[in-house]
Design goal:
Number of helices of chain A: 9
Strand order of the largest sheet of chain B: 6-9-10-3-11-12
Largest sheet of chain A: 10 strands, mixed
Order of helices and strands of chain A: HHHEEEHHHEEEEEEEEEEEEEEEEHHH
Helix content of chain B: 25-40%
Oligomer: heterodimer
Order of helices and strands of chain B: EEEHEEHEEHHHEHEHEHEEHH
Radius of gyration of chain A: 21 Å
Structural class of chain B: alpha/beta
Distance between the termini of chain A: 54 Å
Largest interface: A-B, 23 and 32 residues
Shape of chain B: globular
Number of helices of chain B: 10
Number of domains of chain B: 1
Number of strands of chain B: 12
Strand order of the largest sheet of chain A: 2-1-5-7-9-11-13-15-17-19
Strand content of chain B: 25-35%
Bound molecules: adenosine-5'-diphosphate, magnesium ion
CATH class of chain B: Alpha Beta
Distance between the termini of chain B: 31 Å
Chain lengths: 432, 251
């Protein structure tokens, strides 16, 4: 089907705004085929079904909308007390001075920009491939745009038990920065690693992570998307999960004018596990807040388990979106799929739109999904206040209780405690 | 301690009048009981005093140690020393009982300008008080009142009271849903708190709680008013003859 002229113009203008980095032959090819894919799809518009609840205009505009900087110097940084390998990007540009040496037992780690200059590298089998695979049945043009123009990222291969997490820190220092990062991760058989991500990254951030899990591999992902108000972000995670492998991801989002986090998970082997969770807290008072979690889990292997647990707390006109799908193919017998998306609206101005979907072609499966929107429990609030807890603190307690199910998805106790403590701090700060 | 004068209260939404001029004074060191048929306004009185939404005071006043409490937020009333043991304690999924107790204790101390209790001191205190009420560690860890039996909920109310050490305790039908053993535990818990500086208002439908918690004064409430006040013998009269005679007398 031919694209409408307006969409072609939108796409071409955006493509023309970027420089295409030059690299090794395979890298140049990967970028060019990505642009071919992108041109065939065209960038999304608000009229697209998949973008019905989130207007992509600010993500597709040729330049990043200006984003005021936010003073975080008084904030305790997330993961501050966690022993980790730090890799820092400022407005999408790698900062060697703030980063640790890229060496860690059980890991091969390199920058994407370096890898793309080498003639032969294992990552060439993955870069853009999982993204391409994830374009069907739903197009994700902003991810193809990323594969075409990504300036940097990390390329990680885990081969054993990794002693500490790899921590990507995205700092934001320019009001007009437009960062495009792309990470490629392969966890080999029996290996296990944790990836941490934190920070606003840029005025506008487009990030793709491709994760390939070999049989019995384990991958943990914990992300905190910072407290900057003005930033915009679109992120995609394309994940392939082989037999008996485990993928677990958790994202905490506080503030952000516009965030769209897509997770595309393909469970290809038997007895594998994939969990994706998120907690988003939005307050529309200082700046707009719109947060969209879009998840697509495909079950192909037998006896696999997937979970989607998403919680949103919205106030002062904040809006939240959840689009979650579980697709069970005919081969995926004994699938155990669970999906819950819930919103707590702290006032009547805030909105939550959810589109939960199940599509099942196997007969012996257990799948459940639910979505709820509710207000704070006034009875519980009064009970807490009658014991001396002030209104704001009582609300926070109930908010934390509401979010607990998502936070509990974080397996590691220290990291879970870190995220919970951060959340409490942020809630307390919001009252100052 | 607690002084209620000519208190008139309506339901905010329906405008229906529930309390029609309540006069009641509880002195420090005394236990007052309020008895009365269902629907006479006992719970409404306890809710209005503790600051629940949904009621409007159309006339009268209520003061605690001379301070007008009706103008205060619920948390301020708590900090001022008021405590209500709920007839129906609320379940709060996701909030641990311990977290709740510590938050409440420290919040009140903060409002009164006192230092927070350290985690260690708190733990010691709560273990000691919980033990006398036969509340085990597992119950303390669970979310507030979630999955508690009726008796466990009431014991949990008394535990909160013991931890917060309020000056004025209102107990709304704390005996309902309790078997004999639980009744004894709860009454012992309350009696342990009785002292010269503390007042109690014990709301009950039946006399049996008053066998354990001996009141100094008994009031009979009907249709939003105190229709009779007397000594402990009044409770016995209700036990033997029911409310019918008293109500007829009042008309
Ligand atoms: N929120 C409410 N909505 C409607 N009616 C109420 C409400 N609260 C109390 N009432 C009415 O007020 C009267 C007194 O109730 P309540 O104070 O609970 O009595 P008691 O505790 O003595 O049984 C009853 O007629 C009851 O139906
Ligand atoms: Mg009642």
């Amino acid at each position: 089907m031919a694209l409408a002229q307006a969409r072609i113009d939108l796409t071409e203008t955006r493509i023309a705004a970027y420089d295409l980095p030059e690299g090794a032959t395979w890298a140049n090819e990967a970028r060019h085929t990505a642009l071919t894919r992108l041109r065939a799809m065209g960038l999304p518009t608000a009229r697209d079904e998949y973008w019905k609840y989130t207007n992509p205009a600010e993500l597709t505009a040729p330049a990043a909308p200006e984003a005021a900087l936010f003073d975080m110097s008084k904030d305790r940084a997330v993961f501050a007390d966690i022993d980790r390998l730090k890799i820092v990007f400022v407005d999408g540009v790698f900062d060697p001075n703030q980063s640790d040496d890229l060496h860690l037992e059980g890991l091969e780690i390199a920058r994407l920009s370096e890898v793309m200059k080498t003639d032969i590298h294992w990552a060439m089998e993955l870069y853009g491939h999982l993204e391409t695979h994830g374009q069907d049945p739903v197009a994700r043009p902003l991810a193809a745009l990323n594969t075409g123009f990504a300036t940097d990222g990390v390329v990680i291969r885990a081969t054993g038990q990794v002693s500490k997490p790899v921590s990507l820190i995205y700092l934001h220092s320019s009001e007009t920065s437009d960062a495009v990062l792309h990470h490629v991760i392969r966890v080999e058989e029996g290996a296990e690693m944790t990836l941490l991500e934190q920070g606003p990254a840029a005025a506008r951030f487009n990030k793709v992570t491709e994760v390939d899990l070999a049989p019995t591999a384990r991958f943990h992902h914990i992300r905190a998307q910072g407290r900057d108000h003005a930033r915009r972000a679109v992120t995609h995670s394309f994940v392939r999960v082989a037999e008996e492998a485990q993928y677990k991801s958790f994202t905490l989002t506080c503030n952000g004018v516009l965030t769209r986090n897509e997770h595309v998970i393909d469970i290809v082997g038997d007895n594998a596990v994939a969990h994706v969770a998120g907690a988003a807290l939005g307050d529309g008072k200082r700046a707009e807040f719109h947060h969209d979690d879009t998840v697509f889990v495909t079950h192909r292997g037998e006896a696999c388990e997937s979970r989607q647990v998403f919680k949103k707390v919205l106030r002062n006109g904040a809006s939240g979106v959840f689009q979650g799908k579980i697709l069970v193919t005919p081969s995926a017998q004994k699938t155990d799929g669970y999906q819950i998306s819930q919103a707590l609206l702290l006032d009547e101005d805030s909105t939550f739109l959810a589109k939960p979907e199940l599509e099942i072609y196997a007969d012996d499966v257990k799948c459940s999904h639910g979505s709820t929107t509710g207000a704070i429990d006034e009875e519980a609030l009064f009970y807490l206040r009658s014991r001396g807890v002030d209104h704001a603190s009582a609300t926070d307690l109930l908010v934390l209780a509401f979010i607990a199910e998502a936070i509990d998805e974080i397996e590691d106790e220290l990291l879970r405690a870190d995220i919970a403590a951060q959340l409490e701090l942020w809630l307390a700060r919001r009252r100052d | 301690m607690l002084e209620i004068k000519n208190l008139h209260v309506e339901l905010e939404e329906e405008g229906k009048q529930i309390l029609k001029g309540v006069d009641l004074t509880v002195e420090a060191g005394k236990v007052h009981a309020i008895m009365g048929p269902n629907g006479s306004g006992k719970s409404t009185l306890s809710y209005v005093l503790s600051g629940r939404d949904g009621y409007s005071v159309t006339d009268g006043s209520a003061t605690l140690l001379g301070e007008d409490i009706l103008e205060m937020e619920p948390e301020e009333r708590a900090a001022a020393g008021l405590f209500l043991a709920f007839q129906y304690p609320v379940e709060i999924p996701g909030v641990g009982n311990m977290t709740f107790l510590r938050t409440a204790l420290n919040a009140q101390r903060k409002l009164r300008g006192e230092d927070e209790v350290s985690a260690a001191d708190f733990l010691k205190l709560v273990r000691e008080k919980a033990k006398t009420l036969k509340i085990d560690a597992e119950m303390l860890k669970r979310p507030v009142n979630v999955g508690f039996s009726g008796g466990e909920k009431k014991r949990n109310e008394i535990l909160q009271m013991a931890m917060l050490e309020p000056k004025m305790c209102i107990l709304d039908e704390t005996d309902s849903g309790l078997d004999v053993d639980a009744m004894k535990l709860v009454s012992d818990g309350v009696n342990a708190l009785r002292d010269a500086g503390r007042g109690f208002l014990v709301i009950t439908h039946y006399q049996r709680l008053l066998d354990h918690i001996k009141p100094d004064v008994v009031h009979i409430m009907s249709d939003g008013r105190i229709i009779k006040t007397g000594g402990p013998e009044l409770a016995l009269e209700v036990e033997q003859n029911g409310y019918a005679d008293l109500l007829a007398e009042a008309v």
